[in-house]
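FAQ: What does a multi-protein file look like?

Like this. Sequence, then tokens, then the next protein.
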Amino acid sequence: MKQLLVAFFLFGIVNVASGNHTKGGWMYYKYLGAGAAANTARYLVSLKIYTECVLNNNQFCSEVNISIFNAGSNSLYLAVNVTGSDVTDIQNCTRQDCHPCITDIPNICYKITTYQTIIDLPITPAGYILSHQRCCRIANIINMQPGSSSIGDTWTVTIPGTNSADPSAFRNSSALFAQNDTAIICKDNYFTFDFSADDPDGDSLVYSFTDAYFSSRGNAAQCTSASDPPPYSFINYIAPVSGSQPLGIGV
């Protein structure tokens, strides 16, 4: 396998309410070839953030900061502000035949904002850790503590360096997940959700549940503030839910 890609998703068990802010997302990159300067590589870096469709002015980030850290020292190498390039609203089906287990179907709409930038990075032994941090998760998620609306998010991805198992791994692109959608799941009912991904380099992919990353930015979006340096801590789950069983033992 030429690259190590760790993707983090948060499964939230939510009581339907008028909560808002962030619901999830992911960061990924595409290798574009050699950079303009000697011994550099060029990448298209992308960040997708899922939020409620209707947001207050201080909740929507038209521009975000993507921070790039040296993976060996965890020191900040570069911080760039990136403007959103695409905004799409996705609404779950509201017909009763779509969700027969729900008698009063909630109107659930998700806004997916995509931020993309092209960056040239020096080729190094350790590689890079990219991240974006902001507040706030939606209210009334019942599988984390303390209150979910005061817990921020961290999106991160790693670009390997030449000291990885394959010294050419920096020329890889990260995997792309098939889904750009959401799902309404009924408690104690059977469901499936497609988390498949495709690797453009033909590498093998390994899947596992894992803890969600925490961010201390729980009160203000701070869209264009640089991220805290890694390593990143995890959120605290409420037992018996955990990062390895984010929806409980039944899933």
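And here is the next protein:
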Amino acid sequence: MSVARRALADGLGTALLLAVVVGSGIMGERLSGGNDALALLANSLATGFALVALILAFAPRSGAHVNPLVTLVFLLQKKVQTAEAVAFVFAQIAGTLLGVLAAHAMFDVSLLQYGDTSN
């Protein structure tokens, strides 16, 4: 499989992972009734199960890096070439943005917003 196709697959895996992480966070917050521990548990379980599923689905196609740090480690271990790592990182960044936008659209949240944890 070409580097472009592998990078595209990894970008798609990244988008799906971020859609799950952000989406389950939004849903957990909405359904937990103010119980932050329950929201965190729901988010953690959804993220963990999604990550396992995505690794199983995308590992044969792209290696399922879905994270620029993982790609950097593979580059340092010389398991990927520099050009391949650059393509993967660009695809992962694009996938991150698309995944977050998709999660916000699914839950009818403003597509772009500032994060705020102050009360």
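Q: Is there any per-entry metadata?
A: Some entries carry free-text notes. For the entry above: The first helix runs from residue 3 to 31.
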